[in-house]
Amino acid sequence: MSQAVQEAETREILRISHRFHLLLTACPAWIAISCGGTGDSSMTEYSNPIPETLQVVVLDTLFHDTTAFTQGFEIHEGILWESTGLYGLSSLRKLDPSTGELLEEWPLPVSLFGEGITIVKDQIFQLTWKSGLVLSWNLEDPEPVVTGTIETQGWGICAIDSSTVVTSDGSFLLRFRNVSDFNSIRSISVTLDDVPQIYLNELEYADGWIYANQWNSNRILRIDPVSGCVEALIDASDLLSPDDTLNAGPLNGIAWDAERQAFLITGKYWPWIFVARFDKTL
Ligand SMILES: [Ca+2]
């Protein structure tokens, strides 16, 4: 990652961090909140379980473009789709999931900063960072169309069924939205040991769990979509060699491959996509 880009992103994240620090300081009760839903009149609180620690077992290593500022990652019907960010460099990409090879690429308008993607039926939905715009792309003839707006920043997105998507915005909240209009239905607070987990970034839904990587860490959280409790921690810090990390940015791509029963994992400017499963630590 170029130093200028890293510094700009870090400044923005620190600004968000400062805002949440003020919020948490002003509302002490939130500091020790249990995981639970918000946004409705009957908020339910849950006790945080002791999370499992899972290790990443690498099954295969695939090529990844070291110029790709990865923001979204999802597999659909044998194609690996990737969203990239940065103004003037954002794109939607079609990759071969068996090799990581770039098959096709479509640029975004220079005014838009690409973020997370997910696929519902025959549409790819792509968030943008600070514009509030949600783009849709037809799978058969990709062309970006503004399909909705959201009231928050766009970071990560995953579909949990044919009518509902979940979005992250860099905070500890995950918002459930109608895919028809992207209005927020409800939200959950994601907590670990009763501590809100901010910087939730790229998302993936698999086997009833929401997986989120936290910005600027190599940690993936496995989250209960009802309670918001972090049920498991996945440490992906050993994936890159010291040489690989010299130009690599943070982990930021999780895609569930149902055919291989494995996750594909990558990050911003990473040289590799790792095919991996998450196992209990022996
Ligand atoms: Ca994903």
Can you offer a commentary on this structure?
By secondary structure, the chain is mainly beta. The chain is 11% helix and 48% strand. It has three helices and 24 strands. It has helices spanning 3-26, 28-31, 242-245; strands at 35-38, 45-46, 52-63, 70-76, 79-84, 91-95, 102-107, 114-120, 123-128, 133-138, 145-149, 157-159, 164-168, 173-178, 184-189, 191-192, 195-196, 200-206, 209-214, 219-223, 230-235, 251-257, 262-267, 272-280. The strands form five sheets. The protein has an eight-stranded mixed β-sheet with strand order 18-19-20-21-3-24-23-22, with no helix packed on it. It has a six-stranded antiparallel β-sheet with strand order 2-1-15-14-13-12, with no helix packed on it. A four-stranded antiparallel β-sheet has the order 4-5-6-7, with no helix packed on it. A hairpin with a 5-residue loop joins β14 (173-178) and β15. The chain is globular, with a radius of gyration of 18 Å. The structure holds calcium ion. The site of calcium ion (CA) has 8 residues, from β4, β18 and β22.
Features:
282 residues; mainly beta; Lipocalin; eight-stranded mixed β-sheet; six-stranded antiparallel β-sheet; 3 helices; globular; binds calcium ion
Short description:
With 282 residues, the chain is mainly beta. The chain has a single domain (3-280), classed as Lipocalin, CATH 2.40.128. It has helices at 3-26, 28-31, 242-245, and strands at 35-38, 45-46, 52-63, 70-76, 79-84, 91-95, 102-107, 114-120, 123-128, 133-138, 145-149, 157-159, 164-168, 173-178, 184-189, 191-192, 195-196, 200-206, 209-214, 219-223, 230-235, 251-257, 262-267, 272-280.
